[in-house]
Amino acid sequence: MAIIRLIHVKVSRDQITEAERIWKEECAPLMIKSPGCTSEKLLKCLDEPGEFISYSEWESDDAIERYRGSAAHGEIQAHARRLQGAQAVVKRYALLG
Fold first, then answer.
1. pLDDT band at residue 53, thresholds of 50, 70 and 90?
2. Could you tell me what percentage of the chain is helix, strand and coil, using 3-state DSSP and rounding each to the nearest 5?
3. Angle at CA 79, nearest 5°, toward 75 and 3?
4. What CATH number is given for 3-94 in this structure?
5. What is the mean predicted confidence (pLDDT) over 37-51?
6. Which end of the chain, N or C, is less packed with Cβ atoms under 10 Å?
7. Is this structure's pTM higher than 0.90?
8. What are the sequence ranges of the domains in the chain?
């Protein structure tokens, strides 16, 4: 069963451009190379400036756990920390049918 991992992120208006750049150039390439990650997309909220969702699909919870223990995950966290005051919430969903 595929697992969808959503990271809900909020950044200040003055960090929107930098948040997009960091995710597209630094974070997404690392995540999509991770074994078990089959898709990764960044969604930008049209109604709330500075609100994003990282949408990734994974083969299994085990793949996510391996990724969370990887150097790539640590590097992604370091990139994200450069966004002062950013808030992130991670949620997992099962893909049904």
1. very high
2. 40, 35, 25
3. 65
4. 3.30.70.100
5. 96
6. C
7. no
8. 3-94
